[in-house]
Design a protein that fits this description.
The structure holds 2 protein chains of 2 kinds. Chain A is α+β, with helices and mostly antiparallel strands. Chain A has a single domain, classed as Ubiquitin-like (UB roll), CATH 3.10.20.30. In chain A, strands 1, 2, 3, 4, 5 and 6 form a 6-stranded mixed sheet that branches. In chain A, helix 1 packs antiparallel against helix 3 and helix 2 crosses helix 3. Chain A starts with a strand and ends in a 6-residue tail after the last strand. By secondary structure, chain B is of the alpha+beta class. Helices cover 34% and strands 36% of the residues of chain B. Chain B is built from 4 helices and 9 strands; from the N terminus they run βαβββαβββαββα. Chain B is globular, with a radius of gyration of 16 Å. The chains are: A alpha+beta, B alpha+beta. Chains A and B meet through loops of A and strand 4, helix 2, helix 3 and strand 8 of B.
Chain lengths: 96, 151
């Protein structure tokens, strides 16, 4: 799960983890993906993922229903990805 | 100050006793236990399954507890949250707040629950007696309950 920087292409590899119905729609609990240069925020990442397959489009068709966390801390759509190692996507929480 | 995630049930009396054992400075202990309701929206439920985000759950609960400790003179606090498949009537969550005086203990316990419900990464799936599973939607009333604490 290390963040690997490929200096020749500018791509970054990070771990994505999914919970609840986001996980069910994507069909697996996690992915290791390479993020192209130019993807700067959580919202950018969601827009990128939606172009990567029908399962992502299904999960993010209403992005306002999906919440995100960067390295275990809640993150808003405009939060910069920075040097994130793990990004999580999930519905609004319903514990307690 | 402690947080714990577990699948097994908890014993309210034992937890409160352990938290305050040997202490004579505590004047008020408030405990809250959340339990599984047997129906939701007129639908009878056979079980409720709780999923969580290991790692972030503990981190977020610790942040919530630290915030409560910064706001009220708490001498001890505990959050226990269960995960996995639970039956109607079973306990889900336990919050304990101990303070020299009752007002701080009451308020801190309510704050811990309100913040936990809007911030800790848990998700509930209800399974009806007919066997269909449905993810529970977040409630706007929970967001409002949490907002009343921010000044």
């Amino acid at each position: 799960m290390d963040t690997a920087r490929d200096n020749t292409s500018g791509n970054t590899t990070i771990t994505l983890v999914y919970f609840a119905w986001v996980r069910e729609k994507i069909g697996r609990p996690r992915d290791e993906i390479s993020i192209p240069a130019g993807i700067a925020t959580v919202a950018d990442l969601i827009a990128h993922l939606r172009s990567q397959g029908a399962e992502y489009e299904a999960a993010f068709s209403r992005p306002e229903l999906v919440r995100a966390a960067i390295d275990h801390v809640h993150a808003r759509p405009d939060a910069p990805l920075g040097s994130a190692r793990e990004i999580a996507f999930f519905p609004p929480v319903t514990g307690g | 100050m402690a947080v714990r995630i577990q699948t097994e049930p908890f014993d309210l009396s034992a937890e409160a006793a352990a938290l305050t054992a040997g202490r004579t400075d505590i004047g008020a202990i408030v405990t809250f236990t959340g339990t599984v309701r047997g129906s939701a929206g007129g639908r009878e439920l056979s079980s409720m399954t709780l999923e969580h985000y290991p790692g972030m759950t503990e981190a977020e609960l610790a942040r919530v507890e630290a915030e409560a400790t910064a706001r009220w003179p708490l001498q001890a606090s505990l959050i226990v949250h269960r995960v996995g498949e639970l039956r109607p009537g079973e306990p889900i969550v336990l919050v304990i707040a101990a303070s020299p005086h009752r007002h701080a203990a009451f308020e801190a316990a309510a704050f811990l629950m309100d913040y936990l419900k809007t911030r800790a990464p848990f998700w509930k799936k209800e399974t009806g007696v007919e066997g269909t599973g449905t993810w529970v939607d977040a409630r706007e009333t929970d967001d409002e309950a949490a907002r009343r604490w921010s000044v």
